[in-house]
Amino acid sequence: MTEMRNKPEEKFIPKAVIFDLDGTIIDTERFYRKCWPLAVAKFGYEMTDEQVLQLRSLGRPFAPAKLKEWFGEDFDYWGMREYRKVLVNQCIAKDGIVLKPGIVELLDFLKQAGITIAIATATDMERTAKYLDEVGIRHYFDKICSAVDVKEGKPMPYVYLEACRQLGLNPADCFAVEDAPNGIRSAATAGCKVIFVPDQTESEPEEELCYAKVKRADEIIGLIQ
User: Fold this and answer.
1) Contact 172, 18 (CB under 8 A)
2) Which of 9, 181, 188, 211 makes a 20 to 30 Å CA pair with 147?
3) Residue 171 in 3-state DSSP?
4) Burial annotation 131-144 (CB, 10 A radius, 16+ → b, else e)
């Protein structure tokens, strides 16, 4: 399944493909979906699944602000977040990190085609490197950018702009591969051509901002060949 959001007269060949990490490269969003409510419950609050889905790729300062909006100004976001990390680590220790379908096939194709490969993630650099090493794909990536190191995280565009700056490329010359609304908005606002690969939800209003929608990552090969 490939849905084009616009139909260019000529096939677009990106100079780089910039990937989100969680839910796009690795199947970890399901852990966050499970652990957010458990972490919040330990602090005496209740979080709905709809609220959890709003937090996907939501960076600072927006995530702390969103939870304080929901639960009050005295909500201990950072304490809760540390506990959530413990829970997620327990899930990873139990189930391991699994690659999303078609990712290796796509990475192999891009590498052989000489197309630059990068990551723009809300996850910090230490955990990003750890996860990539665990699944054995770190060597594919020419640049890794974390929203922790920019002014504001997703849905603001800064992590994608920084990735493009480090690559020396115009965002309009890059594909951005995303699974969630906040990431889509970030990449689209930066000026990248966004490809939506659904993860926790099959559709999002933000997909109207996208260049294309595919069911799995290796379908992106057909957009380039």
Assistant:
1) no
2) 211
3) helix
4) bbeebebeebbebb
pLDDT at residue number 225: 85
Instruction: Decide if 20 contacts 147 (C-beta within 8 A).
Output: no
CB 162 within 8 A of CB 153: no
* The amino acid at 98: V
- Give the span between the Cα atoms of 175 and 117, in whole angstroms: 10
Q: Which is nearest to 138 in space by CA: 175, 193, 99?
A: 99
As a whole number of angstroms, the distance between CA 2 and CA 14 comes to 17
Cis before 61 (ω within 30): yes
Contact, 3 vs 212, CB < 8 A?
yes
- The letter for the amino acid at 144 is I
Structure tokens at 84: 């959530």
- CA separation, residue 172 to residues 72, 142, 194 (Å): 40, 18, 10
Average pLDDT along the chain, 225 residues, taken 10 residues at a time: 55 95 97 97 96 94 95 95 96 96 98 98 93 97 93 96 97 98 97 98 95 97 93
Tokens of 82: 């540390």
Distance CA 146, CA 73 (A): 27
pLDDT at 223: 94
Other beta carbons less than 10 A from residue 112's beta carbon: 8
Q: Residue 19: enclosing H or E segment and its boundaries?
A: strand 16-19
